[in-house]
């Protein structure tokens, strides 16, 4: 079976230089007709690429031309076709966010990394948290709170001191951002089947925004978050891309 490659690249100089070399060597197809998309950049660009092709089902193979490249393979220009044919597929499901704002409008968005609720003013947010319709935290006073997927657990979630979740784990991370009360609450691990509901307490005095990756909804009053099983994305990794080792390193590196 012919491997039809389409290359996409971030605007970073290293990514653009790699794009020029690789397209000269391997050609470049139409992304809408490709059997695989090769993304050149960092994790942020991989996030953009996954959103762009979310509804196409086209597998995405990343090569690191960015900084961390947690979701990317090592960059080499040799034997690309053989690497693509031998790559292992890792399926991902995005989060679904349904938010209602103070005007009563309903907003929907998808997130591959996380859905984050953030205070809009100098006042701390007050948020009630329910899991599968059962209230677990009657009042969280905080700068915010987020729900992260395994793919997003090394991004904002990690910066907020949340746990790293290996790809393929059927878990979500529920992580507070600068929690004031309950003071020692560090968050929770949830099954991927869980539906999380956030109700904003005192939304007039303590406004909160909801952000699904880079889609922001201002002045929300309630937000529901769950895994969207109807959408599936596929990341491709080299067999020797030791993601588990990188996850361990992230947890032990100072």
Brief summary of the model shown:
The chain is built from five helices and 17 strands. With 254 residues, the chain is of the alpha+beta class.
The major pleated sheet works out as: 6 strands, antiparallel
Q: Kindly, what is the distance between the CA atoms of the first and last residues, rounded to a whole number of angstroms?
A: 46 Å
Helix content: 10-25%
| Mean pLDDT across all amino acids | 92
Percent of residues in β-strands: 35-45%
Structural class: alpha+beta
Radius of gyration: 20 Å
The CATH H-level homologous superfamily of the largest domain? Probable inorganic polyphosphate/atp-NAD kinase, domain 2
Shape: elongated
Arrangement of strands in the largest sheet: 6-5-16-13-8-9
* Total domain units: 2
CATH topology of the largest domain: Tumour Suppressor Smad4
* SS field, number of helical segments: 5
Number of strands: 17
Uncertain runs are none
Describe the protein in words.
The chain is an alpha+beta fold and 254 residues long. It folds into two domains: 5-92 and 232-252, Probable inorganic polyphosphate/atp-NAD kinase, domain 1 (Rossmann fold, 3-Layer(aba) Sandwich); 95-227, Tumour Suppressor Smad4 (Sandwich), CATH 2.60.200.30. It has five helices and 17 strands. It has helices at 13-26, 43-52, 80-86, 156-159, 243-252; strands at 5-9, 36-41, 60-64, 88-92, 95-101, 106-111, 114-119, 125-131, 134-142, 144-148, 171-177, 188-191, 196-201, 208-212, 215-217, 220-227, 233-237. The protein has a six-stranded antiparallel sheet, with no helix packed on it. The chain has a six-stranded antiparallel sheet with strand order 12-11-10-7-14-15, with no helix packed on it. The chain has a five-stranded mixed sheet with strand order 1-2-3-17-4, with helices on both faces. Strand 8 (125-131) and strand 9 (134-142) form a beta hairpin. The longest helix is centred in the N-terminal third of the chain and has 14 residues, at 13-26. It is elongated, with a radius of gyration of 20 Å. 40% of the residues are buried.
């Amino acid at each position: 079976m012919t491997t039809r490659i389409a290359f996409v690249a971030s605007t970073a100089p290293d990514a653009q230089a790699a794009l020029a070399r690789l397209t000269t060597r391997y050609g470049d197809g139409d992304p809408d007709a490709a059997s695989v998309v090769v993304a050149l950049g960092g994790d942020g660009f991989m996030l953009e690429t996954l959103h762009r092709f979310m509804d196409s089902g086209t597998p995405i193979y990343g090569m690191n031309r960015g900084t961390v490249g947690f979701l990317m393979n090592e960059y080499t220009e040799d034997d690309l076709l053989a690497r693509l044919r031998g790559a292992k597929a890792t399926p991902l499901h995005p989060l679904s966010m349904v938010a209602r704002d103070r005007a009563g409008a309903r907003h929907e968005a998808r997130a591959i990394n996380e859905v984050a609720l953030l205070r809009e003013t100098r006042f701390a947010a007050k948020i009630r948290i329910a899991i599968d319709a059962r209230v677990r935290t009657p009042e969280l006073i905080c700068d915010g709170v987020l729900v992260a997927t395994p793919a997003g657990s090394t991004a904002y979630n990690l910066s907020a001191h949340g746990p790293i979740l290996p790809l393929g784990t059927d878990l979500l991370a529920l992580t507070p951002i600068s929690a004031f009360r309950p003071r020692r609450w560090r968050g929770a691990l949830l099954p991927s089947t869980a539906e999380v509901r956030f109700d904003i307490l005192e939304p007039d005095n303590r406004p909160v925004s909801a952000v699904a990756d880079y889609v922001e909804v201002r002045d929300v009053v309630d937000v529901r978050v769950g895994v969207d099983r109807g959408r599936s994305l596929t990341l491709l990794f080299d067999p020797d891309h030791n993601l588990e080792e990188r996850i361990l390193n992230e947890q032990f590196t100072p």
